[in-house]
């Protein structure tokens, strides 16, 4: 078996079993444990696994990749709603808002107070329907429609975003890591979110507890670009200290 075929086989095994051990893979493929560790390192760089002591685990992000928007919307729904409530007061202090197309951010947007005039810019096709009954100025970015994510993407989307300057950007992601920053699994989606960040005075990042210490394929932001980190439960002390050091307002 070639190294390329072995790597593909390991990928299939971890996708099926969710967790693999170096010792077991070494015996199965009749190669050294060091060879398996190098294979797992390659898969980690691609955002497919996170290495742990003695093996590796499938990234949470990859378990949900390719699932349709409305199916993803039901995953960790209570956690998403909790994060939305946590940030509600700060959100309603903002007049101009840029929002990504994630299911998490959609829950945040549902709590927007429309008693005063606000402007929302988004690449979410779902937002046009969900926010239709609110007294908001809603600007769609336009762009190429992705039927799976129900989002708008591509050059038109990015060019439209450049026309707006907003108070705050609301985004989610697939994984966060102290060393590697904020990551997403879809390069096209990540490019849109990166463009959004350039137009916002502040960035609020929403991640539930399952995304901490996880990697994904595409690097999206460094930590010095993030102003708020909102999650559904108290992280460990290392993350609390990390946010303090980087002057990020941690909310849970």
UniProtKB/TrEMBL annotation:
It holds the Pfam family DeoRC. InterPro entries: Carb_Metab_HTH_regulators, DeoR-like_C, DeoR_HTH, NagB/RpiA_transferase-like, Tscrpt_reg_HTH_DeoR_CS, WH-like_DNA-bd_sf, WH_DNA-bd_sf. Keywords: DNA-binding, Transcription, Transcription regulation. Residues 3-58 form the HTH deoR-type domain. It comes from the Bacteria. The keyword Isomerase does not apply. This is DeoR/GlpR transcriptional regulator.
């Amino acid at each position: 078996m070639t190294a390329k075929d072995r790597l593909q086989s390991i990928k299939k095994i971890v996708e099926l079993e969710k967790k693999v051990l170096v010792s077991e893979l070494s015996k199965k493929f009749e190669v050294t444990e060091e060879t398996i560790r190098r294979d797992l390192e390659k898969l980690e760089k691609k955002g497919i696994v996170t290495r742990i002591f003695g093996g590796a685990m499938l990234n949470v992000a990859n378990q949900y990749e390719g699932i349709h928007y409305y199916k993803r919307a039901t995953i960790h729904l209570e956690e998403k709603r909790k994060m939305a409530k946590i940030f509600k007061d700060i959100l309603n202090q903002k007049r101009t808002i840029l929002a990504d197309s994630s299911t998490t951010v959609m829950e945040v947007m549902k709590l927007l107070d429309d008693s005063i005039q606000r402007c929302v810019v988004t690449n979410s096709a779902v937002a046009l329907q969900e926010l239709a009954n609110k007294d908001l100025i809603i600007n769609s970015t336009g762009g190429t429609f992705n039927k799976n994510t129900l989002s708008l993407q591509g050059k038109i989307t990015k060019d439209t975003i450049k026309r707006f300057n907003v108070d705050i950007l609301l985004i989610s992601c697939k994984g966060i890591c102290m060393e590697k920053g904020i990551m997403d699994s879809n390069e096209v989606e990540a490019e849109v979110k990166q463009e959004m960040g350039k137009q916002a005075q502040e960035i609020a990042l929403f991640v539930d507890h399952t995304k901490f210490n996880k990697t994904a394929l595409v690097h999206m932001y460094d930590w010095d670009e993030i102003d708020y980190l909102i999650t559904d439960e108290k992280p460990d002390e290392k993350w609390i200290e990390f946010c303090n050091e980087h002057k990020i307002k941690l909310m849970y």
